[in-house]
Structures
1.
Amino acid sequence: CFFNMLIMFDLINYFRMKASIENILRKYQHDSTRLMDILLDIQDELGYIPEAYVPHIAELLGLSDADVEQTLSFYHFFSTRPTGKYRIYLNNSVVAYMMGRSEVAAAFEEALGIKFGQVTPDGRVGLFETSCIGMNDQEPAAIINNVIFPCLTPFRVREIVRDIKENKPVEEMINYQYGEGQNASEMVRSMVSNNIRKVGPVLDPHYKVGEALKKVISMSPEEVIEEIKKSNIRGRGGAGFPTGLKWEFCRKAHGEKKYIFCNADEGEPGTFKDRVILTELPRLLLEGMIIAGYAVGATEGILYVRYEYRYLKKYLEEILENARKKNYLGKSILGKEGFDFDIRIQFGAGAYVCGEESALIESAEGKRGEPRDRPPFPVEKGYLGMPTVVNNVETFCSVVKIILNGGEWYKSFGTEQSTGTKLLSISGDCRYPGVYEVAWGFSVNDILDMVGASKNQVQAVQVGGPSGSLIEPDEFNRILGYEDLSTGGSLIIFGHHRDLIREVVLNFTNFFIDESCGSCSTCRIVPVLLRNKIEKILNARGVEKDLDEMLEWAKLLKASRCGLGQTAGNPVVTSIKNFRHLYERMIQKNKEYDAGFDLQAAIRDGAEATGRIPIV
Ligand code: SF4
């Protein structure tokens, strides 16, 4: 009888889950290109995506099982096994460790009685690691069921676990107050702080929504593009392609439909400025996308936001809804016949490589975020094979100010080759981590002064995230700009007390290993070999030749398909170039060869299992 009840319970559960999944598929009209949304919704509702339902999902979407499985297995935040009612993801970025992540992690493990990667025996709590969650200015930070918990301490962890054991809803586990600005609004209710430290023309809060749009509809699309070209603005995502030119290519490209993508997938460890714009100036960003739509003749925009910012979902959706009511979105925008444009939000599910524009498009089409071969470029053949402009959050915001004030005005900021301002996300060993808007041309020295980092206490600065450069004090007079240190905006400061090789280079290299999509053999293999060499050196078994080999091997990465692989060797290369003495201090002198193979360690498990200790 007991077993019959169990079977009955399983059957009810099975059909309940099946009905939920079918409802979700109906919501997206069985559109296979919305697979990401479908899987996100299933995971939200059931806590995981049961593998047993994959064939059913595939059948209803007209896909093969493998099509569904490849998307499902690609993203960090999708899970095919139950991950608990409370899902804790603790950030493992370098700055999190600098701010006490190890103690916080130990406190979680102790209070929950499980290790990372496990779920409590009662199935209620899952504990997992995750890459940078865009909170480097308030680390250590975790995401629990889409709620951000910044500035964690072991004490705070014990409070959270106590609340979990009392079955409290996560939304009620707020420390004592919400963050400032819109973080405290009814739709966000988040403990996250903005930490805006320096405001320039882009972050200027005295912005009137819709003014630029009203001006734009009195211009022709070609005049809008001309104004953007006049400003010389280059894409703010890091690659620096001229924005006006990109729009012009897309305008001239042939396609039934055109699309505007906003890349809000900032996943580079150390970057968090887009989070602040999405929180405080989302209308500015949307206005920039609408202007781009008008200029290139697009009818649809997709705001691709990283999974880690799902706590902003309701808020952003409400803003879009209000924009529709005001006719900033929809048909005949502001009465302009033929100007139809709408925007939808696409959330990612945790994959750094989706920051690459073609991977972002693949992901929005419901597939693995795997970069495409180019050409063709997205401006010719992008989303669903149609001409597509992909720009970054900051670029769209800057465009609005260019339209309002003119391209010449914009050129009055910055340097000749790098016009305008740049938003920086600054973190690490400094008094005032946060977001700073500065004109291009600021030197690293200026920045250290600005953020309260005493120069004689700074050992190194990582400019541009792990894919950028680790620079030493002799280079602190270099300037930020496309002509010198180009950056997507992340700067991490390291004091003299930091172990650069162990804490920074090893962490960044592991990051690239975790985030490679695995498509190119160079990107899949070389970072692992580099990591093995670093560990060998850290274990005091390195020899001089290892450094030269690392530099040679890193060159192979240039053959990779996308920027992730091409720059995955940068932490090793720039640290050997600028901090070779730190490596040399650890390598064996007067020894030309050491395989780094530790026989004792290799046989330890076997020896313990058999209880025999061989003599080696
Ligand atoms: Fe994927 Fe790396 Fe190749 Fe980029 S370089 S396509 S991330 S394997």
2.
Amino acid sequence: MITFQYSHLKTVSEADVRSFDERIAAADRHIRNKDGKGNDFLGWVDLPVNYDKEEFGRIREAADKIRRDSQVLLVVGIGGSYLGARAVIEFLKGCYYNQKRKNTPDIYFVGNSFDGDELKTVLELCEGKDVSVNVISKSGTTTESSIAFRILREYMEDRYSKEEAAARIYATTDRARGALKGLADQNGYETFVIPDDVGGRFSVLTPVGLLPIACAGIDIEALMRGAANEREKLFGDGLTNDAYTYAIARNIQLERGKSVELLCSYDPSFRFMGEWFKQLFGESEGKDKKGLFPASAVYSSDLHSLGQYVQDGSPILFETVCALARPAVRDMNVPYEEENSDGLNFIAGESFYKVNKKAMLGTLLAHEQGGTDTLMIRYDAKDEENLGELIYFFELACAASGYLIDVNPFDQPGVEAYKKNMFALLGKPGYEDKKAELEEKIKNI
Ligand code: PA5
């Protein structure tokens, strides 16, 4: 179960929250009636209950086949076409998933940079192992993933026959459009569809996330069930639901002059959930010169780097802490030592969970004293259902928050600017005039 708390330190009152009543009611109407900005991208709202069951079955079959015939799965994609899958796998299986002894393939995420060394390294790691590839792109034309896939197609066809390579490549893309769809049809790759009405950053519960997640041995049915439960609970709670209250609380911080939301966890395996969160909120809200800047940190590690700034630096941020509400299933205790040479016997016998929790509470009090407010999101367990709930909670909060600041939460026009310049500088046909203009500007760089 997911719970949200904003009033534990009494810096935000119920009256502050209620002052958003009209605005949250309007946001809720836009989401339910699909009549707000970007309303043709609200497919994620009902996805946990109306997803394509036949395709879901094919995802499981494909994952079973990949687990049987491959020791490595290469997932090619960027942005919404990789962050969700990586976040779920790392959160549930840990950051050392690939190094663990297991009966599921190692999973490497590639095509999310222009780093040739990284791709070369991953291909070296594939030596002597059987490989499958899941290439994911809604547009089917994203440069980072397209270049990586061009290399991987050649790699797979060199290692296997053209037919065997095709049987090991799975394409997740648009139903009908894009270069990737064309390639998949031409070569006979098994394809999975990204629904038209679900944008990249809201797509983790579509085949985009589900195929790699299932390959890691994660129960995707439980993940969907968690999301469906959270959907029912949140909509059942009406305007006072926790996701809307979180959306309001972060906008209260924005109106009080804060410009950064730091999503903090005390669990290292949450790191990529932070990356997913940053894309979700950053691309949804950061437009028309509005929106909080989403950042993330993993404590206590980052207390030894960012902690000084949060405590004492420019008062630009507030924290949203995501924490496990109950002791972890796998844990260790601090051992007792007769000589007590390191002075740690005062916590001998205590679990890491307990020490971590005291670190969290101590930090919360210290940061509050330094002028940094904290919002709290808690989950009951590190399992598929809770994670499905958390994903849906953030998605609904993000949509509502975008409507509260009156932007279209579902487009990302700003992402195109760098692409146009890059294409011009690389000499893509059609960009000739821009190339000359840009080269003049950067001649001293
Ligand atoms: O949220 C989005 O739509 C984007 O971040 C995309 O996910 C990202 O740009 C990758 O796009 P595509 O899936 O078309 O390759």
